């Protein structure tokens, strides 16, 4: 059994494994850095640590209804990175046998696996590959 947090970005669900997360909290505004990528949300001092904020809407090129004031950040365990998401939907405990290769996707380099829940396919963010794609590790 694997445990996941399900989060939404532009009304699309994604998952990240519990073991990859240090904490989830209300979003904070980052201090912009010059010459940063468009998806870079700046840096923020969170509990004495300097975190890079990555705006997943911009990173995944997802647009739609603008998020409200309830945005969250997911603090990752592997690096001082905070993922800016629209909201946290739920948790899910998934049997290993129910995790499958992700269907065709333009982001297959960071989403290798997915699971089905409530008639939806929920891609699982591969944190190590994601961080490598952002050059934050």
TrEMBL record:
Name a biological process GO annotation: signal transduction
Q: Which SMART domains match?
A: CheW
Looking up CDD domains in the UniProt record yields: CheW_like
InterPro entries cross-referenced by the UniProt entry: CheW (IPR039315), CheW-like_dom_sf (IPR036061), CheW-lke_dom (IPR002545)
Q: Which GO terms describe its cellular component?
A: cytosol
Q: Where is the CheW-like domain?
A: 1-136
Its recorded name reads Purine-binding chemotaxis protein CheW
Lineage summary: Bacteria, Bacillati, Bacillota, Bacilli, Bacillales
């Amino acid at each position: 059994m694997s445990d996941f947090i399900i989060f939404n970005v532009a009304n699309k669900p994604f998952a990240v494994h519990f073991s990859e997360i240090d904490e989830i909290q209300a979003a904070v505004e980052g201090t912009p850095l010059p010459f940063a990528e468009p998806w870079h949300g700046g840096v923020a001092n969170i509990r004495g640590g300097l975190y890079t904020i990555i705006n997943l809407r911009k990173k995944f090129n997802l647009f739609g209804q603008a998020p409200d004031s309830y945005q969250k950040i997911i603090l990752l365990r592997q690096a001082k990175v905070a993922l800016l998401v629209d909201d946290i939907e739920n948790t899910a405990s998934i049997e290993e046998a129910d995790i499958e290769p992700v269907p065709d996707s333009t982001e297959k380099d960071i989403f290798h696996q997915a699971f089905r829940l409530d008639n939806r396919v929920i891609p699982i963010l591969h944190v190590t590959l994601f961080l490598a794609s952002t050059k934050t590790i």
